[in-house]
Amino acid sequence: MAKLIAGSAFVITISVLMSGCHVRAEYDPSQQAGANPSIPRARNFFAPPMQVPKYVGWKNGATPKVADGLKIEKIASGLVHPRQIYTLPNGDVLVAEANSPNEEAVTTPKQVIAGLIEARSGKKADGANRITLLRKPANGSGEWERYVFIDHLHSPFGMQLVGDTLYVADTDAILKFPYKTGETTISERGVELADLPDTVNHHWTKALLASRDGKKLYVGVGSNSNVGENGLEVEYRRADILEVDTATGASRIYAAGIRNPTGLQWEPATGRLWAIANERDEIGPDLVPDYLTSVKENAFYGWSKSTRYAI
Asked: What is the mean pLDDT of the chain?
């Protein structure tokens, strides 16, 4: 009888926790775009509402829809969790096949439930920890030629070519490799230029961008938590964009308070640095909108004020 009661209590608890997942976004995407997006009030949930798409592959003869004037075609399939691409000057395309190193401990029921829901999208799939090179076939049609370009990496993400040096941002370090135009594999081991924050790895991706003159690298380092719940000591140099000197590997915080800067790029007209930021979770399906922002040197962008001042 005791086992029956305990089992029933568990089912009820899971049902209550999962009920938050049925809450859906109420705002149209256009309402949360622009300089002044609509922001609803924050809410508390037993389990955070999560709208995760179910992973499906391309069906034969079918393609995703794209905007008018654009064309889409499949150039590679069967990649192992491709997360980032980088086009080389000769037209070859590098693909970082990687996922989280899964070093963050699962310590709460919320993390267990969130993991089950996120798995529907394929997010929990293992990455290959490699960079694959794709090359357009000579006949110009069909899937591209594929080569293992760099293997045995540690959750790689950002890639940048400066002269004859290819920089790769693993989750824990920036590595540099010698590059020759047209080669299809690099056998040399990477040389570490600079270490990167990698404790816990709640956010593991490290976006990478080189300065126009190639003397600096800019690295997006996400926070180690949602709002500091893993402790402030693991947020050192987190939620920052770091500037790394390519000659010495020395680094500094270029801008702070960007919760998870997953994309970096130069604006072509002004030359100003811009970043895409993933904002915080778990306070409502319409909160908080991710954003695109210009990044000013030494500026602070809001995550998390209490964390920033406490460090």
From this structure: 86
